[in-house]
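User: quick one, fold this
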Amino acid sequence: MRNFLIAVLFFALSIILQYFWIKFQRREHLTQAQKTYGVNIDVEIKSKTPSMGGVIFLAMSIIALALNFSLDSLIFWSLPVASGLVGFVDDWLKFKTHTSEGFKSLSKLKCQLIICAVWIILVFILPVGQTGRGDLALWPGFWDAGGWLAIPIAFLITAGTINAVNITDGLDGLAAGSFLISLASMLILIPVNEFNSEILIELFFMTAGFLFFNLRPAKTFMGDTGSHFLGGALAALCVMNGRTLAIIPAGFIFIIEMLSSAIQIFTIRKLNKKIFLMAPLHHHFQKKGFDETAVTLRFWLVHAVGALLISLMLIR
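Assistant:
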């Protein structure tokens, strides 16, 4: 009954808070300039769309922490909140400067790395989740307790996940819908216990409430605030349960998107040629003439299938 009530509460609150936040953003013109080097599709519409919907994630996380305050909860929510605040600085600078460039990339990366490093250390030394007291693991039986190499790998994966979700957030509903699929895959990837169940329910229904307004045509975007928050939450679920490698199936589409950008940058700089019409990958298909909704739905499907197949390989 408690989980049912939490689900109803978080879905209703997410929709209500997002609705009034959107009205406030429209009144204050809290929108984001579109990239001049983007796909240039629906630029006028998207440039007038409120762009900091992820702020509600930060508010909802405080409610979640208040409902079940514990060391585990405090450590868990600290990563998505801290990451989301870095994204918020980026969003705010974009708004204030009326450009698509906010926080300088290198400065933002340094903040991300510091946050991830401090968080990983806390998880490693504190008795939290399925890890702690030196038990950070990549997967049960694989670099389990005492596997020191698991620490830098977990650090890199945590920072990478935050950026991968951010890169994926480029189409209406794409990142939020993919995150919901990731949470569904977590049901078979991490232990089912009271703490994990409540976290998954809270994350699922706060994101579903946002997606209600983010489906095409989007009434709001999550911005870097939201994408950083969701990336941090996904990484925290994997690492705190001693299953860092769960990010491979759970973050399947995010990894593909990040790899497409990395490949594009490498080939342009080293080979002076493009592999994709535009990176990340979702923009490549837009450039080829695919409708935005069609790309989003197909990416959701690929993510769901990929997550399920790899999950079955991991848990066999």
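User: anything notable?
Assistant: The chain has a mean pLDDT of 91.
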